[in-house]
Amino acid sequence: MVSKGSAAYSILKSKCPRCNEGDYFIGKNPYSSLGLKMHERCSHCDLKYDMEPGFYLGAMYISYLMGVALTLPIVFICFLLFDVELYVLLVLGLVILIAMMPISYRLSRIIWINFFVHYTPT
Ligand SMILES: [Zn+2]
Q: Tell me: the pLDDT tens digits for 42-68?
């Protein structure tokens, strides 16, 4: 699979981008309340995850792109395969977006921090 020491490892395992050891989120399950809470600092290398106020605003762009990349193909395929009304497709897209929101939230934040912090073995 993905080896330790890469951004992909950090993103897929929700680990600290600098050391790939400490957990990024308190909970493992994105659909639990603890799954959406981040640790303040890495337990292994002491990297401060919330580097400055508003740091994660850029993660919204990542979240938006993931939502479009996931929803549009599914809605388009349903449009081609099934004879359904437009509002049904809109509701389907909305349901997909809402259902994927916790996963999108976690992924967008960890992808965003990986743009700025790179793996540094200690
Ligand atoms: Zn760390």
A: 999 999 999 999 999 999 999 999 999
Sign of dihedral through CA atoms 33, 36, 38, 39? Answer: positive
Question: d(Cα 79, Cα 93) in Å, to the nearest integer?
Answer: 11
Alpha carbon 92 to chain centroid distance?
Answer: 21
Instruction: Record the pTM.
Output: 0.88
Q: Compute how many other C-beta atoms are within 10 angstroms of the C-beta atom of residue 5.
A: 13
Which structure tokens are listed for 10? 């950090």
pLDDT digits (tens, 9 = 90+) for 12-47: 999 999 999 999 999 999 999 999 999 999 999 999
Residues with CB under 5 A from ligand 1 (ion): 16, 18-19, 22, 42, 44-45, 47
CA 37 – ligand 1 centroid, Å: 17
